[in-house]
Amino acid sequence: MHIPDNYLSPTTCAVLAVAAAPVVGLSITKVKAQLKENKELAPMLGIAASLSFLLMMFNVPIPGGTTAHAVGGVLLSILIGPYAASLALSVALLLQALLFGDGGILALGANIFNMAIAMPFAGYAVYNFFRKQNHETAGVLVGSYVGINVAAFLTAIELGIQPIIANQGGEPLYNPYGLAVTIPAMMATHLTIAGAVEVFFTYVIYRFVKQVAPQELYTPTSVNTTSFVKKIRYVLIALVVLSPLGLLAEGTAFGEWSAEELAEMMTIVPAGIENGFSFEALFSDYTIPGTNIAIGYILSAITALLIFYILGKMIRSMNGAKVSHA
């Protein structure tokens, strides 16, 4: 679901970045207010970004030779609320793009809009509806399923309109596949396998938190105190160790092909993709120079966790002590 650079026109990228910016700004404001109430929320932001980052490393095979992965957007909303989840996901997507080349730099606004805004807010709305009806578990299952499919549908639309809005002499300049291809391809994948994977990870981690610290699940009237941070770190460690399993799925997710991969699929590569913006990430495709791919995958995961841990510490140190209420 990570849209690479040059698959969306510059105009599309700009529009989606402008659309995402106010929500990210509002999320920052909301999280700042929460941190004034409880600075212990800061480490949970790092935990949340780490969870999402690691879940996205677990690629699963899709019939037809492609892959997909969970995102964890609704899971984070359930743990720390939709605004904090949106912020944590945005940071995770930024790190993926800049350091690991997963998702485009110019397309970052689009990826944030789809995965860090639409997914957590839509999924949380569904979860919260069921929760208010005393069907919390159903909310977790349905909310996570709806969230990832909303994000997938938006991605399919954004990719599919490119041949219509950005072409030269009838030839597409960016993503070459229209809506008749992108919608069935994206939705068939996410309504079935990717949706099931998202539900599985969300429910398993939700049940873990429910057992070790049920009072810590986010509600609009309470601020998470993160007393289970140490316990959930065991989940992160397990995900790091198991992360090379994501390498077992061969192929590239739909719409995430490199220019070279697309050239093998088509006789003519769209000009915008062939001659477009190029950025070489330091650890592209989660590989570390001088190591085999599995070790590189683990080291990439550890690197991300350390960065998120440091960011959490920095945010905590920048906020004052917890406000006491009489």
UniProtKB/TrEMBL annotation:
Keywords annotated in UniProt: Cell membrane, Membrane, Transmembrane, Transmembrane helix, Transport
UniProt KW Transport keyword: yes
Record's protein name: Cobalamin biosynthesis protein CbiM
Localization annotation: Cell membrane
Annotated InterPro entries: CbiM/NikMN (IPR002751), PDGLE_dom (IPR025937)
Species this protein is from: Granulicatella adiacens ATCC 49175
GO cellular component: plasma membrane
Transmembrane segments: 41-62, 74-99, 105-126, 138-157, 177-206, 234-255, 293-312
BP GO terms, sorted: transition metal ion transport
Superkingdom, taxonomy of origin: Bacteria
Coiled-coil ranges from the UniProt annotation: none
Presence of keyword Protein transport: no
Annotated membrane topology: Multi-pass membrane protein
